[in-house]
Amino acid sequence: MDKVRGFIFGCIIGFLIWHIQAWAYPIGYNELIAVEDAEEYMEERYVDIPIEVSDVCEKYGEEYGIMPEIGKALVWRESRCTDATNGKCQGYAQINVGVHKDRMKKLGVTDIHDIDGNIHVAFDILSDGYKNTESISKALDIYNGNGKNGKSKYAKEILKVAYCLDRTGGD
C-alpha cells in the first residue's frame, strides 16, 4: 500500500512541477528557444522598436501571458512599427477591421489607428489562436491567414525577430 501511495504522490508532484514550469514562462518562450538561424537573419535587417510600441506590447504581453517580444516582432513585420494602411488591413498590427469588427467591439476598441487599441486587438487574436492550437507559430499563421500549420515563412520570420529581441532586451 505504501508503494501505491508513493507512486501516486510522485505522480501528483511531477504533475504540479510540470504545470508550474509551464506557467513560469510566457506563451511563445518554448518555441523561441528552437529558432534556427535567427542571428544570421537579423544581421541582414535593422529592427528598431519605438518605445511607444514596446510599452504597449509589454502591457498586453503581460495581460495575455504572451511574450511581448512576439508582439513587437509582429508589429515590426506587419508595418515596421508605423500606423500603416495596406488594403483592408490597418494600423500598427495590420488589423482587418471587417474581419475583427466584433472583436474590436468586445474589447472596446473604436479607433483601429490608436496604437493601444490596434495592438490590443492583435494580442487578442494571437491569444485565441494559441488557445485553439497551443502553438504560437500556429497562432501566427492563423493571424496572417495562412491556416494553422506553423511552418510559414511569416511565422518563422516573426519568431526569429522575437528571439533576437528577447536576447537583446526587447527594443
Secondary structure layout plus pairing:
Blueprint: H1 2-24, H2 29-32, H3 38-43, H4 51-64, H5 68-79, E1 85-86, E2 89-90, E3 95-96, H6 101-107, H7 115-133, H8 136-144, H9 153-168
Antiparallel strand pairs: 1-2, 2-3
Helix pairs in contact: 4-5, 4-7, 5-9, 7-8, 8-9
Structure description:
With 171 residues, the chain is mainly alpha-helical. The protein is 64% helix and 4% strand. It has nine helices and three strands, in the order αααααβββαααα. Strands 1-2-3 form a three-stranded antiparallel β-sheet. Strand 2 and strand 3 form a beta hairpin. Helix 4 (51-64) packs across helix 5. Mean pLDDT is 83; it is low at 14-24.
Summed up:
By secondary structure, this protein is mainly alpha-helical.
